[in-house]
Write a structure and sequence with these properties.
single chain, alpha/beta, DHBP synthase, Rossmann fold, 2 domains, 9 helices, globular, binds threonylcarbamoyladenylate, binds magnesium ion
């Protein structure tokens, strides 16, 4: 659908109903869903055939909207002031009341925020009235799309609407900077250069030792890795008295607490519940969380990938 007021209104309706909308930003086309809905975010992974749950970028209209979601430190303020709207993403600690879904954050207590500099993206954000989680609008393993034809080639039939706003001017993804308590780090190079960031901050900036795509040094050192405090035991066929159970399709019973990711064995529903349920069971204070076997098909691969990381020995 050609970009314009009608497309923005249509996109907003679809997003608020939990659907998927591909839309242009200045960097690449994004595959958007309501960032506050675990179910809507789960459908992003289904459409992309993504084998793992990376945390996603939440797009917002402006600095004020970002501030409502996360604690921005002084570096983050300087960078936002200099580069927003634009191809810079800031990772910051979430506010307690932050409504961005745990699945969009891959269970983390931080959130990646970006204010896109594109009139179509801005119009959709304003009309939707909610943060929009959006990875690049391509199938997993393919290159990021910079025009609507690329998106249609990859995702036709898998999205509810593709808004055509012409070619993207930047053409590479946003630069990602993490502004967490351990100091500022460059997580991904992109549309804003490191030199430009260093000029604004007035000091050199360290690239993270653990860049996106690089092999992790150890499982616990992955920055985008959520691990519960309790131990995690996979492929459990039974539950000990001092364990909590993360079930799938009613396979387990017993233990101090039990939550079923999807009684109906629906993997999208299971993905949507995954991080929230892990947190709830972790809070039960059990010795370990026993996890029922989950099929490796469809989103099951991504669910099992995250569970394997959660179960890995701590660094
Ligand atoms: O240009 C872009 O940034 C495009 C357009 C659509 O805006 N979006 C994009 O999103 O590239 P995505 O979801 O593919 O980028 C997500 C990356 C993750 O792979 C991860 O590296 C980083 O952002 N990220 C997100 N949340 C994070 C967090 N809480 N901590 C650390 N890294 C995070
Ligand atoms: Mg991508």
């Amino acid at each position: 659908m050609e970009a314009g007021p009608a497309a923005a209104a249509e996109a907003a309706l679809i997003l608020r109903a939990g659907g998927l909308v591909a839309f242009p930003t200045e960097t690449v086309y994004g595959l958007g869903a309501d960032a506050t809905s675990d179910a809507a975010v789960a459908s992003i992974y289904v459409a992309k055939d993504r084998p793992s749950f990376n945390p996603l970028i939440s797009h917002v209209t402006d600095l004020g909207a970002a501030e409502a979601l996360a604690h921005l430190d002084s570096d983050a303020w300087l960078l936002a002031d200099a580069f927003w709207p634009g191809p810079l993403t800031i990772v910051a600690p979430v506010r307690r009341e932050c409504p961005v879904s745990l699945l969009a954050r891959a269970g983390l207590d931080s959130v990646a925020l970006r204010v896109p500099d594109h009139p179509v993206a801005q119009a959709i954000l304003r009309a939707a009235g909610t943060p929009i989680a959006a990875p690049s609008a391509n199938r997993s393993g393919r290159v990021s799309p910079t025009n609507a034809e690329h998106v249609a080639g990859d995702l036709d039939g898998r999205v509810d609407l593709i808004v055509d706003g012409g070619p993207c001017v930047v053409g590479v993804e946003s630069t990602i900077v993490s502004c967490l308590s351990d100091g500022l780090r460059l997580l991904r190079p992109g549309g804003v250069s490191r030199e430009a960031i260093e000029r604004v901050l007035g000091r050199p900036v360290a690239a993270s030792a653990i860049q996106e795509g690089a092999a992790p040094l150890a499982p616990g050192m992955l920055p985008s890795h959520y691990a519960p405090r309790s131990a995690v035991r996979l492929d459990a066929m039974d539950v000990a008295d001092d364990e909590a159970a993360l079930d799938f399709g009613g396979q387990l019973s017993g233990g101090v607490a039990r939550l079923d990711l999807s009684a109906a064995r629906n993997l999208s529903e299971a993905a949507a519940n995954l991080f929230a349920y892990l947190r709830r069971l972790d809070a039960a204070g059990a010795r370990a969380i026993a996890v029922a076997p989950i099929p490796e098909t469809g989103l099951g691969a991504a669910i099992n990938d995250r569970l394997a990381r959660a179960a890995a020995p701590r660094a």
